Amino acid sequence: MKSVRVFLSDKMKSVRVFLSDKMKSVRVFLSDKMKSVRVFLSDKMKSVRVFLSDKMKSVRVFLSDKMKSVRVFLSDKMKSVRVFLSDKMKSVRVFLSDKLR
């Protein structure tokens, strides 16, 4: 009953990550030049932590909700996106090939 959807634009300008888990959603929007990151969490205003590297190469999103976490890793050249969902030792990985740019 859990799904992760990753939407990637044609020119790798935006990445959207949707996590559906008991009516909980996390949306990550990346700007065209990786200058801004917006995270929207719809679940009773629970905490979300966003860590952005100094060179804007990687983005990590942590969702704390009853020992559940969501991590979004972006590669240096925006070639791949990995989504890890940890919930009762279950994991979901989404890989986008280089040809999806």
Question: Can you describe this structure?
Answer:
With 101 residues, the chain is mainly β. The chain has one domain. The chain has no helices and 8 strands. A two-stranded antiparallel ribbon has the order 1-2. A two-stranded antiparallel ribbon has the order 3-4. The radius of gyration is 13 Å and the shape is globular. The chain starts with a strand and ends in a 15-residue tail after the last strand. The N terminus and C terminus are likely disordered.
Which properties best describe this structure?
single chain; 101 residues; mainly beta; globular; disordered N terminus; disordered C terminus
Blueprint of the fold:
Blueprint: E1 3-8, E2 15-20, E3 25-30, E4 37-42, E5 48-52, E6 59-63, E7 69-74, E8 81-86
Antiparallel strand pairs: 1-2, 3-4, 5-6, 7-8
Rg, please?
A: 13 Å
Helix-strand pattern, N to C? EEEEEEEE
The residue-averaged pLDDT reads 45
Unreliable segments of 5+ consecutive residues = 1-15, 19-26, 34-59, 63-69, 78-101
How many helical elements?
0
Assembly state of the chains shown: single chain
Helical proportion, percent range: under 10%
Strand order of the largest sheet: 1-2
SS elements, strand count: 8
Which word captures the global form? Answer: globular
Q: In whole angstroms, how far apart are the ends?
A: 29 Å
The overall number of domains is: 1
Return the structural class. Answer: mainly beta
The largest pleated sheet is described as: 2 strands, antiparallel
Strand content: over 45%
